[in-house]
Amino acid sequence: MEKSSYSGPSSIVNSAPVSIFSYCASSILMTLTNKFVLSGDFNLNFFLLAIQSVTCIVAISTLKSLNIITYRQFNKDEAKKWFPIAALLVAMIYTGSKAIQYLSVPVYTIFKNLTIILIAYGEVLWFGAKVTPMTLGSFFLMVLSSVIAYYGDAKGVPAGDLFELYLGYFWMFVNCFAAAAFVLIMKKRIKLTNFKDFDTTFYNNLLSIPILLVCSFLFEDWSAENVSKNFPAENRTATVMAMLFSGLTSVGISYCSAWCVRVTSSTTYSMVGALNKLPIALSGLIFFEAAVNFFSVSSIFLGFVAGLVYAVAKQKQAKSNTAQQLPK
C-alpha cells in the first residue's frame, strides 16, 4: 500500500484507532450522501457520478500538489490499456446508484455481500484460489441474510410500489455482476502495471469522466423542466453540496483504506470491512425511511455475522498459505 507523506503529528498519522474510525466514517458518509441525493425525483445519475469523479480528480490533484499523496503521471499507452476497466467502473457505479435509488440502505448493504461470492469464484477460475468450508459457510449466511432482507423489505409494501422494489433488486443483481467483473479484471491489470492505490484512483476517475458525461447527454433528460425537477429551488444548494461531498468521500475511502492497512495490517483491515457493514445498515434505518421489523433487523445482524465469518476464513486461509510456503 502507498504510504502518505503527510507531515502532521505522528501520533495521529500512525494511530490505528483513528485510521479505522476514519475509514468507517468515510464509508458511511458516502453511502448516506448518495442515498440523500438519489432519493425523491433525482434521475440524472450519470451526471451525479461525473461530478463525483471530477471532484475526486480535483481533490487528489490538490493533495498531490501539497505532497500529501503521490501517483504516477498520465500516460497515453497506460490509459488505453486501462480504459476497459474504467468502462466497467462506470457500469458498476451506475448500477449501484440505480440500486440504492430504489432500495433501502440496509438492503443495499446486505445484498452487496453477494458480490463477494461472485468475486471468490471468479478468483477460483482465474487465479486458482481455493474456497474453504468456512468460506462456504459464510457464503450460505450471505445468501440467507439476503433472502431474509428481501422478505423484510417486501413485507407490507403496497402492491403499487412493488414494481419499483423489484426494479431495485434488478439493478442490485446487475451491480453485483458488474462489481465482480470490475474487481477481477482490475486485479489482473494491476498485477501487470504495478499500480498503487492512488494510481488506480487517478486513472479510474479520469477515464470515467468522458464516459459518464457522454452517457449523461445521450441518455438523460436535459430539458429545462427535468433539470428544475432534479434541482428544485428549495433544496438546490443542499443537493449540489451533497454531490460534491460524495466525491470527496470517495477520495477519503481510498486514502483511509491505504492509511488503515499501513498502520494496522491487511487482517485488521478485512475485519474492519466486515464490521463496518453493521453501522452502515443501522445508519440507513436511522436517517432514511426503511422497513424496521423482525426480518429486516435479523438480516442486518446475519449479514454482519456473514461478513465476519468470511473475514476470519480469509485470515485463516492466508495463514495456511503462508505456512505452506515456508521452507520445511
Automatic annotation (TrEMBL):
Keywords: Cytoplasmic vesicle, Endoplasmic reticulum, Golgi apparatus, Membrane, Sugar transport, Transmembrane, Transmembrane helix, Transport. GO terms for cellular component: cytoplasmic vesicle membrane; endoplasmic reticulum membrane; Golgi membrane. InterPro entries: EmrE-like, TPT_transporter. The chain crosses the membrane at residues 12-32, 44-63, 83-104, 110-129, 136-154, 166-186, 198-219, 239-261, 268-288, 294-313. It is a multi-pass membrane protein. Its main location: Golgi. It is found in: Golgi apparatus membrane; Cytoplasmic vesicle membrane; Endoplasmic reticulum membrane; Membrane. Homooligomer. Belongs to the TPT transporter family. SLC35D subfamily. Involved in the import of GDP-mannose from the cytoplasm into the Golgi lumen. This is GDP-mannose transporter. It comes from Candida tenuis (strain ATCC 10573 / BCRC 21748 / CBS 615 / JCM 9827 / NBRC 10315 / NRRL Y-1498 / VKM Y-70) (Yeast).
